[in-house]
Amino acid sequence: MWDPLSALGVLTAAWLLLGAAWRVGRVVYIYLLPWARPGDHWIRAQGAWAVVTGATDGIGRAYAHQFAKRGLNIVLISRNANKLEKEAKEIERLHGTDTRVIQADFTGGLEIYGAIEEGLKGLDIGVLVNNVGMNHSKLPVKLLDCENPAQMTRIVLPQMVSRHRGIIINVSSMSENHPWPFLGTYSATKAFVQRFSAAVGAEYLSEGVTVQTVSPGPISTNLTCNIKTGWLVKGPQDWAEQAVHTLGLSSHTPGCLIHVVETFLIGLLPSWCACNRWTVKLWALLQPIVLKRVLKDQSASLFNPKPAQ
């Protein structure tokens, strides 16, 4: 007969093995089995238009092209009018879908949202790729019960609820998992995005609205100084194509398989490893080296530009 301590050990080991098997099986199901994906028809069934903020560069631009490729019309929102017009024409040329542009600088305060809401009137919006968020109430209430929270989700969500369909994608980052010295504000706001998505997703799951958080690892964009792509660093279009395949399968995803591995490995580190004084000193020493490498890569890209796609 087993003593209680041995029985507890066996149960604990079985629980840990079951949890590991579940996580591995989930990764295989989401990222490696094409037949498990809902398909383009499911995305198109959400609505005729996709609204993408920050749509002229990086992840936003990549999402705009991916949804246009799948037959959705695109509303591009960004602050640079010239880049908006150029990107809209490029999407129409490559994918044959309609586009609209809305010029807006999200650092401009609450006044920008009126013009955005007016520009979206009458559109059958099925997808929102959202990079903007703020605290919407001092009290614990559902999002649509708040008074004028003035954010993209609040503008688009009512029609999704009324139609009982729609997708909201909130872009976070792998940095949401830990406080990161020298990236304090960035990592903190990304943690907010993840919690915001989880809360709103729970509130409106029964209304037929899918809310997904994407928390990628390193991607070569303007934000990351266009670092070289490779095994660990994804290009935005390549990453977005894989991330779109996870819609309907996962409410929170790094977007692609390699970033799942990176997130898992970094998640093994306790927060104190990132914030102790020795790590901070190490980051301070590495900063000049990283900056020098980034500047070198940028100079190389200026003299050896990539061909237009």
Describe the structure.
The protein is an alpha/beta fold. It folds into two domains: 21-269, NAD(P)-binding Rossmann-like Domain (Rossmann fold, 3-Layer(aba) Sandwich), CATH 3.40.50; 274-304. It is built from eleven helices and seven strands. It has helices at residues 4-31, 40-44, 58-69, 81-95, 112-120, 152-163, 184-204, 236-244, 257-267, 271-275, 277-303, and strands at 49-53, 73-78, 99-103, 125-130, 166-171, 209-214, 252-253. A seven-stranded parallel beta sheet has the order 3-2-1-4-5-6-7, with helices on both faces. α3 packs parallel to α4 and α3 crosses α8 (236-244). The longest helix is centred in the first third of the chain and has 28 residues, at 4-31. The chain is globular. The chain starts with a helix and ends in a 6-residue tail after the last helix. Residues 305-309 have low confidence and may be disordered.
Question: What's the short story on this structure?
Answer:
This protein is α/β, with parallel strands linked by helices. The chain has helices at residues 4-31, 40-44, 58-69, 81-95, 112-120, 152-163, 184-204, 236-244, 257-267, 271-275, 277-303; strands at residues 49-53, 73-78, 99-103, 125-130, 166-171, 209-214, 252-253. The protein has two domains: 21-269, Rossmann fold (3-Layer(aba) Sandwich); 274-304.
Write the layout of secondary structure elements.
Layout: H1 4-31, H2 40-44, E1 49-53, H3 58-69, E2 73-78, H4 81-95, E3 99-103, H5 112-120, E4 125-130, H6 152-163, E5 166-171, H7 184-204, E6 209-214, H8 236-244, E7 252-253, H9 257-267, H10 271-275, H11 277-303
Parallel strand pairs: 1-2, 1-4, 2-3, 4-5, 5-6, 6-7
Helix pairs in contact: 3-4, 3-8
